[in-house]
Design goal:
Shape: globular
Helix content: over 70%
Number of helices: 20
Largest sheet: none
Structural class: mainly alpha
Strand content: under 5%
């Protein structure tokens, strides 16, 4: 009886997630994500610039005010038939966001989640303000996540098949993970993860060589951009936001831990039986205590003061703490420590595979 009730609640969650996702599109002016400002100030206009003058849009890309690579503009300018009109364009990206949910749910099924569990977990992405806001306003993140989710689907297929993986799946994995990178630079972590995963899990030489050759070919457009711009970015026309500098890896560490908490806690609650939540809380209290004590000491010494000054990239929990006057950022530090426990859990489950996933994330984001 209890299992049936839980199953019904999951059906309700999927329905409410889909319903609210489409309903709130009509109230997108109130979305909290910064995508609205980007869309109105430069994003849609940049798509039109690419249509009108592709060459100069590439050569002087920095003048367009976007730090990401230009595949999203190219895609929408030449492959999205609705990009001539703002309203139709936003409808098209709304459905791109919806397909992210569908593909993610199908991918979860291939990891041996039940169908209802796959769709209930997958539907959570529709409730995330960070995601829905960008889907509503059609900025690069939603297309990048779309490509990344397709990459994840092919990765799971290849992981399950191991050396029996089909050649076409390997090629499509390379294509879509490269497309994700060319849309959002930070998604470079996934191709890095794929290469290390193949080596560490002893895929045969032909499979690894095929992936490396494909990535080499797909890197040519990026190398051309570096040649044209004289660097990884068109820095002569644009300044890059300081927090993306490699010197700030340590500063970003608690922020990424907070993201891990924010995006994973609903999954832990939904899959209480799979993760054995009660046992998890008891088993990982030590890792939580180590993390919270370390962060509190750093905070008292003044090394966490930069969190209160952040304008971009701190996440919803940091913004919420600022809104309610949490000057010591205690809510943020506590949830980051829970995020550290989640990280410790995954590393302990499968250190070899999970370290090559998380390490690039911490180094790049």
């Amino acid at each position: 009886m209890l299992e049936k009730r839980k199953k019904n609640l999951k059906y309700i969650l999927v329905f409410l997630s889909i319903f609210s996702y489409f309903l709130l599109f009509y109230f997108k002016d109130y979305s909290i994500a910064g995508a609205q400002v980007d869309f109105k100030s430069f994003y849609f206009n940049n798509i039109q610039f690419f249509k009108e003058d592709f060459y100069n849009s590439i050569v002087n890309y920095g003048l367009l005010g976007d730090a990401n690579y230009p595949l999203d503009y190219i895609f929408h300018a030449f492959l999205n038939p609705f990009s001539f009109d703002k309203d139709l364009y936003l409808l098209s990206t709304l459905f791109i966001g919806f397909f992210v949910f569908i593909i993610f749910a199908i991918s979860l099924e291939k990891i041996n989640f039940s169908k209802i569990d796959s769709y209930s977990i997958g539907s959570l992405i529709l409730l995330l303000p960070w995601f829905s806001g960008r889907a509503y306003w059609g900025t690069s993140a939603v297309l990048g996540i779309f490509f990344l989710t397709i990459s994840f689907y092919f990765f799971i297929k290849i992981k399950n098949s191991h050396n029996d993986a089909k050649t076409i799946d390997l090629i499509l994995l390379c294509i879509f993970s490269s497309a994700a990178l060319y849309t959002r630079n930070s998604f470079v972590f996934f191709p890095i993860f794929i290469i290390f995963f193949l080596f560490l899990n002893q895929f045969n030489f032909k499979k690894i060589f095929l992936v490396l050759i494909n990535y080499f070919i797909l890197a040519i457009p990026g190398l051309l951009l570096i040649f044209i711009w004289g660097g990884f970015y068109d820095s002569k026309n644009m300044d890059i936001y300081e927090m993306h500098n490699f010197r700030n890896i340590l500063k970003n560490f608690p922020i990424i831990l907070n993201y891990i908490f924010f995006y994973l806690w609903p999954i832990f609650l939904l899959e209480e039986k799979r993760f054995n939540l009660k046992k998890f809380l008891i088993k990982h209290q030590f890792s939580f205590l180590i993390s919270i004590i370390t962060l509190l000491i750093l905070s008292l010494l003044g090394h966490m003061n930069y969190l209160s000054d952040m304008v971009y990239g701190g996440g919803v929990i940091l913004e919420f703490g600022s809104y309610i006057g949490d000057k010591l950022n205690l809510i943020f530090l506590i949830t980051s420590s829970i995020g550290f426990s989640f990280l410790y859990y995954f590393l302990k489950q499968n250190f070899k595979n999970n370290i090559i996933l998380f390490l690039p994330i911490f180094l790049i984001f």
